Amino acid sequence: MKIIGHQKIIDYLVKSVHRKKLAQSYLFCGPAQVGKKMVAKYFAATILCEQEENPCLQCDSCLRVAQDEHPDIYYVQPEENKEIIGINQIRSMKNAAIFSPFSGSAKIVIIEKADNLSKAAANSLLKILEDPPDRVFIILLAQGLANLPSTIYSRCQVLRLKPPHSSEIISFLQEEFNFDQEKAEKITSLSWGLPGRAINLVKNKELGLKKQEELISKFLFFLTERDNLENKIKLSDLILKSESQESLFVLLQVVRDFYLIKAGLNSATALKEEQKKKLAQMYSFLELRLFAQEIMRVRNQLTAPLNKKLLIENLFFNNFT
Ligand SMILES: [Zn+2]
């Protein structure tokens, strides 16, 4: 269970286990793919480990945690093709939590995408947070506090996870996948500093490194020559044929980078220096913001049963021109 970054938070959590000073509910906040679930799993492994020097990462318990197979860890996340975590899922979790642990030490509930709890689900969760059963630890993972009721997060110990330094991602990629410096750097810059994205770029065949580079180059071409019809079609097509939401996330990051460059801040992008400056000059802050909003809108609508092709084509044909 190798974790990229977050060393301070991990040290803190492991120490809390060793000193037996645990809170019963935690909320890990941070952007998607920053490593919240990995930290939660490492924490769970520490609590459940059978060895004195925990987490040993070698005992049966630790190995099961790493493989998402530990019987005392209960995961909650939106069901397939659904955005929301419903009340029934929280009810089932609560039913499971009252039984004593299989391994004898503790039960751990990890609620992924807790930002997406329905109102009823959040209310139901609140009851177990107010009075959690003995040796049940609840870890909520969320992007921020904005979509969570204050009654929920005020009952949790909140830990904020920030993207690790890019050098940590680079060395991870070199050690784990034997990449040379150049390839590791390229992937890191295309991951926008998010470890989960970096790993996806390596493992994901659908929107892997090559496709992502192609996507960015077509998008940049679109930004420079907005009247080029052929490129617009190719760009829409590329997004439709790969993971559309993920592709739009990439475009959003590119727009965000221009925004940062314009504001004189550093950006994590893989774009060439001259290209960055030229494009940043072409657009006003307002234009960039509107375009970002438009991409987000289309990205959110992709989950609804609408005409996907039309939605994506409209983004390049009708808007922002
Ligand atoms: Zn262990």
Quick structural overview:
Helices cover 55% and strands 8% of the residues. The chain is built from 15 helices and five strands.
Gap from first CA to last CA: 47 Å
Low-confidence stretches: none
What percent of residues are in strands?
Answer: 5-15%
**CATH homologous superfamily placement of the largest domain:** P-loop containing nucleotide triphosphate hydrolases
**Main β-sheet description:** 5 strands, parallel
Query: How many domains make up the 3D coordinates?
Result: 3
Describe this structure in words.
This protein is α/β, with parallel strands linked by helices and 321 residues long. It folds into three domains: 154 residues, Rossmann fold (3-Layer(aba) Sandwich); 39 residues; 113 residues, Up-down Bundle (Zinc Finger, Delta Prime, domain 3). The protein is built from 15 helices and five strands. It has a five-stranded parallel β-sheet, with helices on both faces. 33% of the residues are buried. The model has no long low-confidence stretch (mean pLDDT 88). Zinc ion (ZN) binds next to helix 3.
Protein traits:
single chain; 321 residues; alpha/beta; Rossmann fold; Zinc Finger, Delta Prime, domain 3; 3 domains; 5 strands; globular; binds zinc ion
Topology:
Elements (H helix, E strand, L loop, with lengths): L6 H12 L6 E5 L6 H13 L11 H7 L6 E4 L10 H12 L8 E5 L7 H12 L5 E7 L7 H4 L3 E4 L5 H12 L3 H10 L4 H9 L5 H16 L4 H13 L2 H19 L10 H10 L2 H17 L6 H10 L4
Parallel strand pairs: 1-4, 1-5, 2-3, 3-4
Helix pairs in contact: 1-2, 2-3, 4-5, 7-8, 10-11, 10-12, 11-15, 12-13, 12-14
The chain binds zinc ion (ZN).
Zinc ion (ZN) binds next to α3.
